[in-house]
Amino acid sequence: MNQEFIEALDELEKEKGISKEVVFSALEAAMVSSYKKNFGTSQNVEVNIDRETGKIDIYALQDIVADEDLIDDKTQLSISQAKKLDPKYEVGDVFSKMVDPAKFGRIAAQTAKQVVIQRIKDAERDIIFDDFTDRENEIITGQVQRVSYGNVFFDLGKTEAILLPSEQIKGETYKQGDRFKLLLVEVKKTTKGPQIILSRSHPNLVKRLFELEVPEIAEGIVEVYSIAREAGSRTKIAVFSKDEEVDPLGACVGYKGARVKAIVDELHDEKVDIVIYSKDIDTFIANALSPSKVEKVFANEKEKSALVVVPDYQLSLAIGKEGQNARLAAKLTGWKIDIKSTTQYEEYLETENITEEDLYERYGCKSDFSEEAIENSEDSVDASDEIEKDEN
């Protein structure tokens, strides 16, 4: 090796982040393998490479033993023979003999090459694994490289990542060269190197997009309490503000809906409902059922179940198409929600032969759903509607 080789290692370290020490260690291990391959011996070998000049020193090592203890002349040297070489040798010392690497054969050289290449590949894989493991649950931008058997492979620069069918948005198309924002879900170690799993359907993708677009969320002034998502169709996100002077809805929507529009565009027009989180569960459930108006909420804290009453004309809106609105509200709050219209509610009381006060007592909750709660239940935004208003 010479100075040119040292410079090549410097370049490798800059481009791929692989430490020169990794390569030197690999070369030393390769020289040991080459020696044993070349000379067909199990003899102990020591290889030292000067990190500054690249000079290689290879030594065959033999333990010095008493003449009567000599068993293997490949790994041992009798004391009488050692004394002939240097009278200072004693039993227990190690005899080192320098070996010329230039005498290694072609097969040995090939073995060395394979060891070095494998060590460099392993080091590169470890660097990629460590780099992307630290970025799990973060947004990453990737370019579609290819689509194979429903799997979409993205070019991330240093490596490629995979978007499995289960992590894709239903109906979304992926063409070579298209760029997407994705959530890095998991990094796995495999025999072929790190496998990076991406997602377009994970609820946290929406959360990370809001963090990117809404400075108040990134700064921690406005916080995301929970998210419920049916990818490609609708998302509900509950937010609250730590600062009374900051309106969480206004912060998330942005001037003329600019902030939320960027998110909706990235999600290819997926509907986004932004609602206010409240510690008062009645209010939170009412907010979660937006855009429907809520008249009464009977909440059972112990069973985390609630009966919600809405105006007759709002029942279909509260339940949503194929039950989606009610389903997402239940996911958002973590409560089981039973929705009834005013008429159904009155029939229910009659059938059960109970009064409203009895029902409140049965659910173990307060005896009224306050006007303030009703007002707060209207504190929600259908982002898609807001965008349309601003555009018109």
UniProtKB/TrEMBL annotation:
<dbReference type="GO" id="GO:0003700">
    <property type="term" value="F:DNA-binding transcription factor activity"/>
</dbReference>
<dbReference type="Pfam" id="PF00575">
    <property type="entry name" value="S1"/>
</dbReference>
<protein>
    <recommendedName>
        <fullName>Transcription termination/antitermination protein NusA</fullName>
    </recommendedName>
</protein>
<comment type="subunit">
    <text>Monomer. Binds directly to the core enzyme of the DNA-dependent RNA polymerase and to nascent RNA.</text>
</comment>
<dbReference type="InterPro" id="IPR025249">
    <property type="entry name" value="TF_NusA_KH_1st"/>
</dbReference>
<dbReference type="InterPro" id="IPR015946">
    <property type="entry name" value="KH_dom-like_a/b"/>
</dbReference>
<dbReference type="InterPro" id="IPR009019">
    <property type="entry name" value="KH_sf_prok-type"/>
</dbReference>
<keyword id="KW-0694">RNA-binding</keyword>
<feature type="domain" description="S1 motif">
    <location>
        <begin position="137"/>
        <end position="201"/>
    </location>
</feature>
<dbReference type="GO" id="GO:0003723">
    <property type="term" value="F:RNA binding"/>
</dbReference>
<dbReference type="InterPro" id="IPR003029">
    <property type="entry name" value="S1_domain"/>
</dbReference>
<dbReference type="InterPro" id="IPR010213">
    <property type="entry name" value="TF_NusA"/>
</dbReference>
<keyword id="KW-0889">Transcription antitermination</keyword>
<dbReference type="InterPro" id="IPR036555">
    <property type="entry name" value="NusA_N_sf"/>
</dbReference>
<keyword id="KW-0805">Transcription regulation</keyword>
<keyword id="KW-0963">Cytoplasm</keyword>
<dbReference type="InterPro" id="IPR058582">
    <property type="entry name" value="KH_NusA_2nd"/>
</dbReference>
<dbReference type="Pfam" id="PF08529">
    <property type="entry name" value="NusA_N"/>
</dbReference>
<dbReference type="GO" id="GO:0006353">
    <property type="term" value="P:DNA-templated transcription termination"/>
</dbReference>
<keyword id="KW-0804">Transcription</keyword>
<dbReference type="GO" id="GO:0031564">
    <property type="term" value="P:transcription antitermination"/>
</dbReference>
<dbReference type="InterPro" id="IPR030842">
    <property type="entry name" value="TF_NusA_bacterial"/>
</dbReference>
<comment type="function">
    <text>Participates in both transcription termination and antitermination.</text>
</comment>
<dbReference type="InterPro" id="IPR013735">
    <property type="entry name" value="TF_NusA_N"/>
</dbReference>
<dbReference type="Pfam" id="PF26594">
    <property type="entry name" value="KH_NusA_2nd"/>
</dbReference>
<comment type="similarity">
    <text>Belongs to the NusA family.</text>
</comment>
<dbReference type="InterPro" id="IPR012340">
    <property type="entry name" value="NA-bd_OB-fold"/>
</dbReference>
<feature type="region of interest" description="Disordered">
    <location>
        <begin position="370"/>
        <end position="392"/>
    </location>
</feature>
<keyword id="KW-0806">Transcription termination</keyword>
<dbReference type="Pfam" id="PF13184">
    <property type="entry name" value="KH_NusA_1st"/>
</dbReference>
<dbReference type="GO" id="GO:0005829">
    <property type="term" value="C:cytosol"/>
</dbReference>
